[in-house]
Amino acid sequence: MLTITRKLEFDAGHRIPDHKSQCRNLHGHRYTVEITLAGAVIEEEGSSDNGMIMDFSDVKALAKQHLVDVWDHAFLVYKKDSAVREFLESIPGHKTVIIDSIPTVENLARTAFNLLKAAYQDRYGTGLRLQKLVLHETPNCWAEITAD
Ligand SMILES: Nc1nc2c(c(=O)[nH]1)N=C([C@H](O)[C@H](O)COP(=O)(O)OP(=O)(O)OP(=O)(O)O)CN2
Ligand SMILES: [Zn+2]
């Protein structure tokens, strides 16, 4: 299968409330997200996209709109982490994103996949789809999620 992949980076804070070790503390990461798309190569003479599954600049623009700009420099807090939610709410204008599940890299990858899936789905009638998303929390730790 032919795919393309675009990598973007963002910074965000999180904590894993019940973690046995350091990750229960408020801390942050420079996350790296790799977005892999599949679909037919566009064949349209004279089109800017000719020969592409999707222009990398368009992949980036949609990723920023639906994920990267939303999570960048935000604190990603678990909806049931009431101590931290109350603290963040006490800071005027703080950029906070409430996550339905504990913000491990596994759950964040799944959340990011769901946010981006609809954004890319069949934009050109070429069967374009989000095939895979890889989220690196550190250079040594990451999660991967692939379309069913
Ligand atoms: N399965 C998971 N395990 C852990 C997660 C996670 O999201 N899923 N998260 C953490 C911490 O939040 C942190 O992101 C990882 O910290 P650490 O293990 O220290 O990772 P490093 O790459 O910094 O470790 P080095 O030992 O420096 O390589 C923990 N576990
Ligand atoms: Zn962490």
TrEMBL record:
Keyword annotations: Lyase, Metal-binding, Zinc
Cited SUPFAM superfamilies: Tetrahydrobiopterin biosynthesis enzymes-like
Enzyme Commission number(s) from the entry: 4.1.2.50
Alphabetized GO MF terms: 6-carboxytetrahydropterin synthase activity; metal ion binding
Pfam families for the chain: PTPS
Record-annotated membrane-spanning stretches: none
EC top class named in words: lyase
Cofactor requirement: Zn(2+)
InterPro entries with a match to the protein in the record: 6-PTP_synth/QueD (IPR007115), 6-PTP_synth/QueD_sf (IPR038418)
Catalysed transformations (reactions): 7,8-dihydroneopterin 3'-triphosphate + H2O = 6-carboxy-5,6,7,8-tetrahydropterin + triphosphate + acetaldehyde + 2 H(+)
Pathway annotation: Purine metabolism; 7-cyano-7-deazaguanine biosynthesis
Superkingdom, natural source: Bacteria
Family: Belongs to the PTPS family. QueD subfamily.
PANTHER family: 6-PYRUVOYL TETRAHYDROBIOPTERIN SYNTHASE, PYRUVOYL TETRAHYDROBIOPTERIN SYNTHASE
Protein name (Swiss-Prot/TrEMBL): 6-carboxy-5,6,7,8-tetrahydropterin synthase
Organism listed in the record: Noviherbaspirillum cavernae
